[in-house]
Design brief:
Helices cover 53% and strands 2% of the residues. The chain is mainly alpha-helical and 281 residues long. The longest helix is centred in the middle third of the chain and has 24 residues. It is elongated. It has eleven helices and two strands; from the N terminus they run E-H-E-H-H-H-H-H-H-H-H-H-H.
């Protein structure tokens, strides 16, 4: 499972799942969740976003992907949460939705991100819990909390945290668009949706909801993104949309032709499903 960290922090694996988990970078320096095998990407918010781990590691992506794989017991591609980055120019009034840590949580947020980078996810999660208690309107507090929850196998909690982060991000953008506030948009929404969608591919068989999230993430991304397309293709596959899944897998493969990825096998199986064994081979 890949988690992506959003700028305020994602995952997608950069699992997640970037803040949403803290891993791959987007234009906003968010981490996304990547494919399981794991790899549906989970992205970690960087407001400041499945395999098993057999020995200590400081590689957050490997750690998150391993944990998620062990949790799901599947070869479904998940994205590691990507961490989103908080925008320094955003105001932090008490009644405002924050995309930058306020003064009372800024130190805690920096410490939590440092702990994440060191692989100390349990300690980072404790700090993120403290952050959302002190500042419940902070988008990336919730998205990064979701990333650590994904990595530590609390998938129900991660789903709730990502949902809160998404709702805050959407409401902030609504206020900006309507002219209620003069601030930057929360630009990590696609990563947050990617992380939650990737998570839902592997949690409680929420395949229809995962497809909704990943379609929104693809639309918001507004350009081909291999991680988004891999997970979107898997969601379409699980929902029986094989021809559509085939197109997305084919595009994702064309964008990663120089890499060998686990999702290539899923793409081949879809070819067989569609009665095209020659292309599958």
């Amino acid at each position: 499972l890949l988690i992506v960290a959003a700028a305020g922090t994602a995952l997608l694996l950069h699992i997640p799942i970037a803040s949403a988990w803290s891993l791959p970078k987007s234009d906003t320096h968010q981490h996304r969740i990547q494919e399981l095998d794991i790899s549906a990407r989970i992205v970690s918010s960087s407001s400041s976003s499945t395999t098993r781990i057999t020995e200590p590691t400081t590689d957050r992506r490997q750690c998150l992907m391993a944990l998620l794989s062990a949790t799901t017991g599947t070869t479904t591609l998940l994205t590691v949460p990507t961490a989103a980055r908080a925008n320094d120019a955003t105001s932090t009034m008490d009644n405002e939705i924050l995309i930058q840590p306020s003064a009372d949580v800024k130190k805690f947020f920096a410490e939590a991100r440092a702990l994440e980078s060191q692989g100390n996810l349990a300690a980072a999660q404790r700090l993120y819990n403290r952050i959302v208690t002190l500042q419940p309107n902070f988008v990336y507090g919730w998205s990064n909390l979701g990333n650590t929850q994904t990595a530590l196998q609390d998938l129900a909690g991660a789903d709730q945290s990502y949902t809160t982060a998404i709702a805050l991000c959407q409401e902030h953008n609504r206020r900006v668009t309507s002219g209620q506030i003069a601030a930057r948009q929360c630009n990590d929404l696609y990563l947050l949706l990617l992380n939650r969608g990737s998570l839902r591919l592997n949690y409680n068989q929420q395949w229809a909801l995962a497809l909704q999230d990943l379609r929104q993430a693809d639309a918001l991304r507004a350009r081909p993104d291999a991680i988004v397309l891999q997970n979107l293709a898997r969601a379409k596959e699980l929902n029986g949309l094989y021809a559509q899944a085939d197109r997305d897998y084919t595009t994702a493969i064309s964008m990663t032709a120089n890499e060998v990825n686990p999702f290539w096998l899923r793409a081949a199986l879809i070819k067989f499903q569609l009665g095209d064994p020659q292309s599958a081979l």
